[in-house]
Amino acid sequence: MSRIQQLSSALRDKKISSEELTIEYVKRTERLNPVLNAYVCTTFAEAIDNARAADKLIAKGEGTLLTGIPMALKDNIATDGLPTTCCSKILQGYRPYYDAAVWQKLKSQGAVLMGKTNMDEFAMGSTSETSVYGAPLNPVNTAHVTGGSSGGSAAAVKADMAVYALGSDTGGSIRQPAAFCGAVGFKPTYGAVSRYGLIAYGSSLDQIGPLTSSVQDAAIVYDAIRGKDVRDQTSLCTPQGETKLTGDVKGLKIGVADEFFEGINPEIKSAIDAAICLYERAGAQVKRISIPALKSALPVYYIIACAEASSNLGRYDGIRYGFRAKDYADIDDMVVKTRTQGFGREVKKRIMLGTYVLSSGYFDAYYKKACLIRQQIISEFKNVFSDCDILIAPAAPVTAFTLGYSGGNPIEMYLSDVCTVPVNIAGLPAVSLPCGKDKQGLPIGMQVIADRLCDGTALSAALFFEKEAGIVIENQGDIK
Ligand code: GLN
To answer: By CB distance 3.0 to 4.6 Å, which of 41, 185, 213, 401 could disulfide with 473?
Structure first.
């Protein structure tokens, strides 16, 4: 049984109440969070209230698998009356007056919210170090980053300060921190989960998904949050009923594209090769393929993401949300000073880049060209999935950086997104799951990618590996 299934049956069988379970999580979080900085805001009082309400639901026999289970939300997911800051100074003090669709769904099932998790400012980054609250630390080795941008969510799950957490993934922000911390991260098909109440970064790429300690748990949370929502025009109807995972890969056609392995750390490559052998031994058919357009994926991603961000972040002007600069001469001066003081360096860099690629004279050369190449990437993936059921690839070309490293090597930080961004460009579902460790004992992540709306296929194939390789994600109890 998965962790959620175990806890849920313990709650139903009255072996423990949600209130008792929540108190355990509160104590653990009080002990570990000062070290790990995974939560930027804890909501323990609300959690205890949620837990008492959940206990009542369970007593009436009205609970679901997630009723009474302690969990966490990334700080870019709107929570009514609770701070939602995107870990940016510009949103300091902002408390939305509505819940994001995903939180509405989970709340109505009696989920227990422990707090909001640390992240890169506005989800821009791959280490969570651009957070205004300072970086979260990797529970596996606190000298290393958690990855990003959903680094706090990954650390909270890995250190068992939450049974599961939601993150958002625009170019890898669920899958890469899951890989760096040794957890499971699932980015659903674009549109499978409503973005209503997710603070926008790159709207054509953003997607909410779970970080968990097993593939089965990722499927359980995915089922609880997915589905059409009239408040998000890009949301989609997903298959009815529970996502059943067979873990059976006999006859499954697996594509392995060379482009995903270029410039990969050799230890990661051999861990993925070993995983592919396991699939083959179980009767899957492995095809070596090529997706040439992937060589342009990283620049295409950064042009489109920054263009969309420059437009999305236009709404932060000191008038409507959060922070406002103190001394100013007139309204223009107020807007300029608020944005200058409120946004961090990385966010400003991206707003400027995005404004540049959209400006007249450069639009055709950058933004339009990136959109055309995006179509090429989509059509090459389409071709691949006419003949393959899944693709297997590394989640990242490297394992977790040491803290502070990427500050001096920003290019390496951008390059570390090379394996994850293609999936967002094409709107595909992908799971990242642990598949080994490097010489330093840092986790290595593998991606299982499927065609649009074939989320169950990706999860099921990932489950096979988790079982076959005997991967049990240990919660990191002792933090060094
Ligand atoms: N690292 C990527 C970026 O900085 C992806 C971030 C994300 O998925 N939110 O844009």
So the answer is: 213
